[in-house]
Structure formats: structure tokens, C-alpha cells
Amino acid sequence: MTIAATPKGERRRQALVEAAADLILEEGIGAVRHRAVATRAGLPLASTTYYFDSLEHLVLCAMQHNGARDVEMMRARVRDVPACPRSLEKTADLVLDLLVGKAVSDDDRDRLVARVEGCVATVRHPELREAQVGIREQVDEVLTDLLERCGRAVRVPQLHTLVVVVDGAVLCGLGDLDPDPRALARTILLDVMHTVAPPAEP
After folding, report:
1. d(CA 150, CA 144)
2. Which one, of 77, 169, 69, 66, lies nearest residue 114 by Cα?
3. What tens digit of pLDDT does each residue of 49-78 get?
4. What's the CA gap between 86 and 144, in Å, rounded?
5. pTM of the model
6. Would you say domain 66-196 falls under CATH 1.10.357?
């Protein structure tokens, strides 16, 4: 691999990362191949091996890119949420807006599938685990901000439980014949929210 030491090299490297990231969202990790990425980026086939140690390295960078993009979208959504006490139901809906999407559009569904696939991929590809952990920590920070804005006392040890509940419901929902992962996640979330993030004391 040659380090992208020039502005042109950095632009090319970034174009490859973005191309691989889009392929993961649209078709899954298995779609990331040297030729497919180079073609999508409009660059020579040799570019992928020039800028990356291996295909696995490119996948890692692409997953980090998708994760950073998702986290930034989440942060933008939370910034628009005024700080005031909210009911259990309204808080749950805002959490789902953040982690699942408001109406689970095609773009939201692609991101959900990619998120689930990324978690599963760490079992076969341990080199991806560090990236997933880093993304999860950032999601936890954004989620903490949201819950505090809703007047909830965030119990950090249990915070991960909330995310696991939503992700588990999403996984099951996406596997249904008529998937509605948000509805399933909402039902379960309402049962655990009071324990994980009870109302803050005045």
C-alpha cells in the first residue's frame, strides 16, 4: 500500500472508501470486491491495492465511514430535540427515531441491515470488532444526550441493554415476511425503558 500523501491521493482514497461504503449499504459486505469498488469510484482497478493493505482493510475503512455517517446523522437529530420532560411513550418514539428511523424508509432499512450485518461480521472477522466497538461507544454518547434531554436518568451500565433490545427487535423484525422492525422494537422498548432510563428526580 502507498500512503495517500498528496491531496489527489487522499481524494482517490476517500472515493474508494465511499464507493465501498455505498456497496455495503446496498448489497452487503460481500459486494466489496476490487473491481466493483474501483468501477464505482471511477478509478483504475489497481487503485484498491495501491491505497489499501487488503480488501479487509478497505471493508474496515468503509464500515468506519458508514458508522461515522450514521452517528453524525444521529447527532443532528438530537440537536433538534428541545430539553423537557417527556412521557415514556414519547421518549421511546424519539429513541426509535434515532436508532431505527421514523418510518423505516428504504435508506433507513439499508442502514439497519448494514448495522446488523456489521455486528455479525465481527464473529468471522475479528479485525472489524474494534471499529464496531468505537461506533457503539459514540452511539451510546448520543443516546445518553437524547435521554437526558427527555428528562430521564441514564443508568450507564444498563444503557447498552436498551440498544441491544432495539437491535434484537430489528433483527427479528427484518426477518419477518412483512417486516416492521420499528413496531416490534417499540413494543419491547416500552417494557424496559422505565428500568433502563427512569424519570430523573426533580
Report:
1. 10
2. 66
3. 999 999 999 999 999 999 999 999 999 999
4. 15
5. 0.84
6. yes
